[in-house]
Amino acid sequence: MAQLTMIEAIQNAHDLAMERDDRVVVYGEDVGYFGGVFRCTAGLQQKYGTSRCFDAPINESGLIGTGIGMAAYGLRPVVEIQFADYMYPAYDQIVSEAARLRHRSAGDFTCPIVIRMPTGGGIYGGQTHSQSPEALFTHVAGLKVVVPSNPQDAKGLLCAAIEDPDPVIILEPKRLYNGPFDGHHDRPVVPWKKHELGEVNDAYYTTEIGKAAIRREGQDVTVLAYGTMVHVALTAAQETGVDAEVIDLRSLIPLDLETIEVSVKKTGRCVVLHEATKTSGFGAELSAQVQEACFYHLEAPIIRVTGWDTPYPHAQEWDYFPGPARVGAALKSVMKEH
Amino acid sequence: MSNSVPLTLHVPEPGCRPGDTPDFSGFEVPVAGETRRPDPLTAPEDIRDLAFSIVRVLDDDGEAKGPWAGTFEKEALLDGLRHMMTLRTFDDRMLRAQRQGKTSFYMQHLGEEAVACAFRLALRDGDMHFPTYRQAGLLIAGGYPLTTMMNQIYSNAADPIKGRQMPIFYSAKDHGFFSLSGNLGTQFVQAVGWGMASAISGDTKIAAAWIGDGSTAETDFHSAMVFASTYKAPVILNIVNNQWAISTFQGIARGNATTFAARGHGFGIPAIRVDGNDYLAVHAVARWAAERARSGHGSTLIEHVTYRSGGHSTSDDPSAYRAKEEGHSWPLGDPIERLKAHLISIDAWSDDRHKQAEAEIQDEVRFAQKEAEANGTLISGPAPSPRDMFEDVYAEMPPHLRAQRQEAGF
Ligand SMILES: Cc1ncc(C[n+]2csc(CCOP(=O)(O)OP(=O)(O)O)c2C)c(N)n1
Ligand SMILES: [Mg+2]
Questions:
Q1: Residue A85 Cβ < 6 Å to ligand 1
Q2: Which pLDDT value is given to residue A249?
Q3: From the CB of B242, is ligand 1 less than 6 Å away?
Q4: Is B271 left (phi over 0), alpha (psi -120 to 50) or beta?
Q5: What is the rounded average pLDDT for all residues in chain A?
Q6: Which of A131, B234, B394, B404 has a CB 3.0–4.6 Å from the CB of B195, allowing a cystine?
Q7: Over the range B168-199, which residues count as b (16 or more CB within 10 Å of their CB) and which as e?
């Protein structure tokens, strides 16, 4: 066991996966010599050589296009997109190619690629370093989409993604890289060193893709969250005194509907959270699924707390970010309905 | 017949990393004044050599030499020096402001000041630049107020773009400066469209596209080349080759091509390399390309050869990936020192006047900073109203957004 940051846990996952499987190759912009602008691939080139970890030209379409070619060949490419906001040039390769290769060739060719990208706001990154594009991936048949909220899961999910026979998108909340963040931006930064989920097993392990985790058990309302919003939800529950059950989805596709259903049937209320814009966001999908599965158990309308339907702003970051005050208000408001 | 061998992956490596001694001996620097200056209307296939040479005007003694010299009057050159000095001082103060926590981020131009400052003077009002984040020299040389730039950097109450974008992502239509995007390469091709629009409309305006060496790898760079080539669009396509793209040396984007400029040849676009640290050379080449574009002969690809002397941004520490001394060994020198030496050599300037100018510029920038800070800083405010965040998403705010704004309490 070691206390790791999320960055160290991701670096460690790459390292162990490369050690045990020489089909694993890691590349992206600034990923090789320097080890990534967030240092998630630090030391890998030095340890495994330039043909297994290397710097790539700045061309996201090329990054994913070559990754698909390598995956189809039989390698296990792990590609980093420097910020999720820069994935759009790669979108055609992801949607039209990676996602459908297995289906269109009836399994003749497959695409076991892993695409990692830092996501989300909270670092004054403005509209091009803050986006949460998960819904653009969950809407596409053939992609798995995971979002870790802590170092333990970041490592286990990355190892599982590398083993997975299909393309997996990993959205890494960059604001969580160095510590859990609950939305109280005006308070001192809390490091992972002090958090139980920062305690990471030294050995190789996988965290099953498709299984949610209950971070707080509660009786009154089910909160569905992922990434940074898990921490915001926990703080909001504590601050409001609402006995919320906080579910960290971890995997959006496939979705652990069973865990969600059991919880909502118990609490009878549901609040859905994400940083991404509201309209057609993944929260709409969650809300629809909960409604379909739990309608007769619901005692209040399902509420979404999300980013506003605007580009992510720079100066107004904290008016945009759905922090503990907004989440707390939603918890109280669903409790008012009988 | 076949003699196959186990293949290996070729990954280009820079000549020098931390701990190595920088060695630019393989980097050929043509003698100033020796590169020919063909007529701007020459066919692209007759000037292929210009993509492999480097147009240089100022020699090591500050003398202006050769056929590309003489595009400037003395007075204008003094302005040019002042623009570059102002940009450097501006950078210095804004870097410090960022370190003091007054804003979130900054990117400097250290060592590259000549490129945008000189280029701007070759274009006219009404032309449009599609810059990257490292062309604030276009604004300074175009007379854009320093205080307004700082208002943007501070995301304060007077920020013309209302705090919506990160520092340095200016927008200044009246100054021919297109709204900056953080997504690399996207705007290179938009500039071509702007030029095409001028042609469609029968106007006389031209466009200038800007991109870094690393970003030439983006698909949008190649899209721009195709469209510029097909429609002979009146656009000057600028690559600023400052040798680095964050931690990645230029060889990763360039691959086995001999120069970035040579990329133009496959598209039939004339291509010229220019000494980007030579204020006179940049201006002369820009003027050449502008003349070509204005006369209906289409695009020119210019590779400005320069060096990023500072970090990529305030989030970057280059000592982790390149030798500290590399910048000092860079063979093309410092653009401000070189123009200063030239002006002294023609008796238009002196060390004393330079010192005096430095002091004046310090005062000017400090004054602008005070003025800007009176409008607020990112941390202390006053900031633009959160209400503004909901404006301009659409020309007219749709009901769902109005409802969200109300919910937000603004
Ligand atoms: C589409 C896209 N991919 C990646 C990035 C991240 N990024 C920002 S600057 C940069 C390096 C650009 O280098 P270069 O084009 O040489 O310009 P320079 O910074 O040297 O002026 C990278 C990779 C981005 N902004 N946009
Ligand atoms: Mg560069």
A1: no
A2: 99
A3: yes
A4: beta
A5: 98
A6: B234
A7: bbbebeebbbbebbbbbbbbbbbbbbbbbebb
pTM confidence score: 0.98
Annotated catalytic residue, options A14, A129, A231, A274: A129
Q: Which of A154-158, B70-74, B95-99, B162-166 has the lowest mean pLDDT?
A: B70-74
Range B249-287 burial, b when 16+ CB lie within 10 A, else e:
bbbbbbeeeebbbbbbbebbbbbbbbbbbbbbbbbbbbb
Closest partner residue to A30 (CB to CB) among B246, B388, B401 is: B246
User: Ligand 1 mean position to B13 CA, how many Å?
Assistant: 19
pLDDT at B206: 98
Supply the pLDDT for residue B257: 84
Instruction: Looking at the CA of residue B215, tell me the nearest atom of ligand 1.
Output: 15
The answer, yes or no, to whether residue A266 has pLDDT greater than 70, is yes
Query: pLDDT tens for residues B45-94?
Result: 999 999 999 999 999 999 999 999 999 888 899 999 999 999 999 999 99
Going from the N-terminus, what domains does chain A have, and what CATH number goes with each?
2-200 (3.40.50.970), 213-336 (3.40.50.920)
The pLDDT of residue B1 is 62
Fold (topology level) of B44-379? Rossmann fold (3.40.50)
Chain centroid to Cα A112, Å, comes to: 18
Q: Is A96 helix (H, G, I), strand (E, B) or coil?
A: helix
Q: Coil, strand, or helix at residue A285? A: helix
In ligand 1, which atom is closest to the CA atom of B241?
16
- For Cα atoms A297, A302, A304, give the angle at the middle one, nearest 5 degrees: 155
CB A158 within 8 A of CB A152: no
Give me the pLDDT at residue B2, please. 73
